[in-house]
């Protein structure tokens, strides 16, 4: 299940501390410690790992994302490659207007195990949607946080002012690649958020 505050940070894990701005990263998405971007997609399609340039300006505008893209160095492991990028999560004023995209690419003898696992888990708690080259699901959530966390606690047990937020997650599974998309958009309804997530997910899936 999605959690309210901090969900986006947990999704990206520790890599958020090592992010480099797309504008200053050569290849934007090709950086890594070793190895190369994956070539073992559904039909042997090469995936560059460049997530900052996957989405169009119109798709970002539809999701009300205005912050620049920040991409983490690719993490290469024996069993998988991990690509991740985010727009605005660590930028002041964008905390609840932010987007994170992550792709896990499984390799070697681990592929069939993880593909089977994610096929069984993908739809739990989510609404399935159509993809030409894989399967996908989406779910959204409306939640509240303190409008002013630094304000003194109200007296006599009164309820402090709350701010309402909208968040959502989409997942796509294409061959041996799992795409995870997390979006906060306080300007959208849950329906609008779902539509934006599906469009982004479909665009990402076409690259996998």
Descriptors:
208 residues; alpha+beta; 9-stranded antiparallel sheet
Could you describe the 3D structure shown?
With 208 residues, this protein is an alpha+beta fold. It has one domain. Helices cover 20% and strands 30% of the residues. It is built from 4 helices and 9 strands, in the order H-E-H-E-E-E-E-H-E-E-E-E-H. The chain has helices at residues 7-12, 57-62, 111-121, 190-207, and strands at 20-21, 69-71, 75-76, 80-87, 97-106, 127-130, 135-146, 162-174, 177-185. Strands 1, 2, 3, 4, 5, 6, 7, 8 and 9 form a 9-stranded antiparallel β-sheet that branches. The longest helix has 18 residues, at 190-207. Mean pLDDT is 77; it is low at 1-36.
Order of helices and strands: HEHEEEEHEEEEH
Radius of gyration: 18 Å
Note the beta-strand portion: 25-35%
Mean pLDDT value:
77
The N- and C-terminal alpha carbons lie at a distance of: 25 Å
Number of distinct helices = 4
Q: What general form does the structure show?
A: elongated
**Which structural class matches the secondary elements?**
alpha+beta
- Note the main sheet: 9 strands, antiparallel
Helix content: 10-25%
Number of strands: 9
Number of individual domains: 1
Low-confidence stretches: 1-36
Itemize the secondary structure elements and their pairings.
Blueprint: H1 7-12, E1 20-21, H2 57-62, E2 69-71, E3 75-76, E4 80-87, E5 97-106, H3 111-121, E6 127-130, E7 135-146, E8 162-174, E9 177-185, H4 190-207
Describe this structure in a few short sentences:
The protein has helices spanning 7-12, 57-62, 111-121, 190-207; strands at 20-21, 69-71, 75-76, 80-87, 97-106, 127-130, 135-146, 162-174, 177-185. The chain is an alpha+beta fold and 208 residues long.
């Amino acid at each position: 299940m999605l959690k309210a505050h901090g969900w986006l940070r947990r999704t990206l894990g520790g890599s958020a501390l090592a992010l480099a701005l797309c504008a200053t990263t050569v290849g934007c998405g090709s950086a890594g410690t070793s190895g190369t971007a994956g070539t073992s997609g559904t039909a042997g399609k090469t995936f560059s790992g460049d997530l900052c340039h996957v989405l169009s300006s119109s798709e970002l505008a539809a999701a009300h994302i205005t912050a620049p893209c920040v991409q983490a160095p690719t993490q290469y492991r024996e069993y998988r490659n991990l690509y991740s990028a985010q727009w605005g999560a660590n930028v002041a004023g964008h905390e609840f207007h932010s987007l994170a995209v992550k792709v896990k690419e499984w390799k070697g003898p681990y592929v069939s195990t993880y593909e089977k696992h994610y096929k069984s888990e993908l739809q739990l708690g989510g609404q399935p949607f159509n993809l030409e080259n894989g399967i996908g699901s989406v779910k959204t959530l409306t939640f509240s946080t303190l409008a002013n966390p630094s304000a003194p606690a109200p007296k006599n047990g009164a309820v402090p002012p709350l701010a309402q937020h909208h968040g959502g997650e989409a997942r796509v599974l294409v061959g041996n690649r799992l795409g995870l998309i997390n979006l906060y958009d306080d300007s959208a309804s849950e329906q609008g958020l779902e539509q934006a997530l599906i469009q982004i997910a479909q665009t990402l899936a076409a690259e996998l």
